[in-house]
Amino acid sequence: MSRRLRIAIIGTGFMGRMHAHAWRTAPRFFDLPVEPEVVVLAGSDAQRAADAASRFGIAESSDDWRSVIARDDIDAVDICTPGDTHAEIALAALDAGRHVLCEKPLANDVADADRMTDAAAAATSRGVVAMCGFSYRRTPALALARRLIEEGRIGRIRHVRAQYLQDWLTDPEAPFTWRLDRDRAGSGALGDIGAHSIDAAQWLTGARITSVSGTLRTFVDERPVLDERVGLGGRAGAGAATERVTVDDAAAFTASFSDGALGIFEATRMATGHRNANRIEISGDRGAVAFDFSHLNDLLFADATLPAGEQGFRRIDATEPEHPYAGAWWPAGHGLGYEHLFTHQSVDFVRAVAGEIEAHPSFAEAAGVQRILAAVEESAASDSRSIRVEGVI
Ligand code: SOE
């Protein structure tokens, strides 16, 4: 294997810039078997791609992802574009024998997710790695929660309570973005942030969601149009044209898990006061874990095997060297942030390419999340009827 992993990032928005930062940081803090290097950044707008490349110290930029994938000096393609382009780019990259890291949700519908999964399975047999970017798996505190659950520390799981709360759409004047267009984003809060909760719930518990009953709500169905470069949180001027919102602002659903646990999920972009509260609490018959991204370095752990007088949640600061990923960073107690999740994701991707670990989540797992999203939509369209999730892996 060459000592370098030459990467092309496709996409120059929030995620493209975040991934560019992560690839640069990963080898500086982690000892990696292969040195990742982003050699080209591609985007639909040539100037924007050139600006972003220069800011992140990437030698080349392009406005043509197809020619980038075809280059013979590219080993891996990192897809950071809106969901409507994931399948086309991933299929082309896998076909060309490139390793692929694809942002979440894997696709905009189950059919595309399945095509990507089939292509990934064929490519994997030729030594190619395909991984979906559910970045929260790489939060040290959440990875610690998984370790505790695997060790049996919370026992048999009965409840999963997951909320992903954002508030950037609370104001009816908050502008339209591609995230509010069903053709580009697939769905709204459900697929953008609810997908994280679904992935985390299944990854943490090791169980699969087998049926759901849900409701979707769009509170504001038209919004002013603003240049997308302003990004999340921007505002349009008076008299701006408007665009119809074709996705949900909020989603809520209950879920049954394969191990008998009961889940309750809420995903919304209208939870006033919550900027990015990705929360999950899992209750078992021996204990419980609770996590809130607003305090991402903390894991709350309740040990129900202790004497009654010592029970209740206690806070673990997940920054000790023995905690997942944490040892590569700062002395204990000095904390990590959102960008570190992406650095850890890059680290795991590189290690998977080098054959040291298995890439996770696989496209198959991410397609499983897609099936659950589709089932929630189907349920919401039929008065919250309970829908079985087909093809649970
Ligand atoms: C916007 O809602 C967003 O950037 C999501 O797309 C990300 O996946 C999440 O981590 C933060 O919020």
List the helices and strands and how they pair.
Elements: E1 4-10, H1 14-29, E2 35-42, H2 46-55, E3 60-62, H3 65-70, E4 76-79, H4 86-95, E5 99-103, H5 110-124, E6 130-133, H6 140-150, E7 157-165, H7 182-185, H8 189-205, E8 209-217, E9 222-224, E10 242-244, E11 250-257, E12 262-268, E13 277-284, E14 287-292, E15 298-303, E16 313-317, H9 338-353, H10 363-381, E17 387-388
Parallel strand pairs: 1-2, 1-4, 2-3, 4-5, 5-6, 7-12
Antiparallel strand pairs: 7-13, 8-11, 8-17, 9-10, 11-12, 13-14, 14-15, 15-16
Bound molecules: alpha-L-sorbopyranose.
Write a brief caption for the model:
The chain is α/β, with parallel strands linked by helices and 393 residues long. Helices cover 32% and strands 25% of the residues.
How does this model look, in words?
- It is globular, with a radius of gyration of 21 Å.
- It has helices at 14-29, 46-55, 65-70, 86-95, 110-124, 140-150, 182-185, 189-205, 338-353, 363-381, and strands at residues 4-10, 35-42, 60-62, 76-79, 99-103, 130-133, 157-165, 209-217, 222-224, 242-244, 250-257, 262-268, 277-284, 287-292, 298-303, 313-317, 387-388.
- The longest helix has 19 residues, at 363-381.
- Helix 6 (140-150) crosses helix 8 and helix 8 packs across helix 10.
- 32% of the residues lie in helices and 25% in strands.
- The chain has 393 residues and is an alpha/beta fold.
- Bound molecules: alpha-L-sorbopyranose.
- Residues 14, 166, 192-193, 276 line the site of alpha-L-sorbopyranose.
- Residues 5-124 form the Gfo/Idh/MocA-like oxidoreductase N-terminal domain.
- Residues 144-289 form the GFO/IDH/MocA-like oxidoreductase domain.
- This is Gfo/Idh/MocA family protein.
- Keywords: NAD, Oxidoreductase.
